[in-house]
């Protein structure tokens, strides 16, 4: 079976890998470079936090387990530590953790002393007596994950066309910007925030959120620091994860209102200085820290906030999600099974692209930053 995969981020690479492992003849079309989209600008936290409804939570749980089963040094299941700021924040955190407990999600409340055993250089603010610890969560090194998935796809015969811009699809037909046209038994769209535009060429409606508060944010990448931060930290003023080689990735969600993909601030500007100051407050051993780069990430988010996965038209399969890191390996495997074996997964029952057929977009609820903060 000849299959085209459009887009070589984590979703595209995962799908190409699973298809190639199953014996399909796979061609991947990438417009610019592997990982050039959201995969290259993501906090890469593997979790099922605040992911509702229950079917979406269950899908993300399966995604976390897929990472554990796949294994590899690109996945760091070191846990996540979280606390809140003020009575209102503490109440929201308590409510969310109670919901997770009801869903049998692994978590426990730990003391600041125990938190410092897990993250030796953590500075816990005065007044924080309890910290939520999620032991099975972790983080991914995104490009290392991409290399693993795409490398195994290549090992099993997958081919890459890059640069190769796809401008239209129709069933199994792919039209290229250079005027070429090729036919396949099936086409997979894994094009992230460009999904709506490309799907529309096949008369398929997949509404995606544009540039708005829920979809854009700053990511700071530090110089190497002599600090021990093995786990993910999600705190009121700063989120932090390791990035290898002593570097850290930092994220201050309240700063994201200034984020603009068309005007990325310098790595030594005001926003960078603020992120570094917050890091020095949170982690010992970060004196003199600076940012090597400051990026603006843009999430690939369907307009209703939920994953899209499944056949949108005959021979056209669509994958789009703002939880691409958590769900990438799982969705790629399920997509390959659905395409090749024609066997639908019950995990995806609530996330089919056909839910948008005939939908009035104005009825969709606004996507707020609070609803999706930190989700990957």
UniProtKB/TrEMBL annotation:
Gene3D superfamilies tied to this protein: D-Amino Acid Oxidase, subunit A, domain 2, FAD/NAD(P)-binding domain
InterPro entries attached to this UniProt entry: FAD-dep_OxRdtase, FAD/NAD-bd_sf
Signal peptide: 1-22
Xref: SUPFAM superfamilies: FAD/NAD(P)-binding domain
Keywords (A to Z) from UniProt: Oxidoreductase, Signal
Domain FAD dependent oxidoreductase: start-end pairs: 2-337
Species the sequence originates in: Amycolatopsis minnesotensis
The protein's name in its UniProt record: FAD-binding oxidoreductase
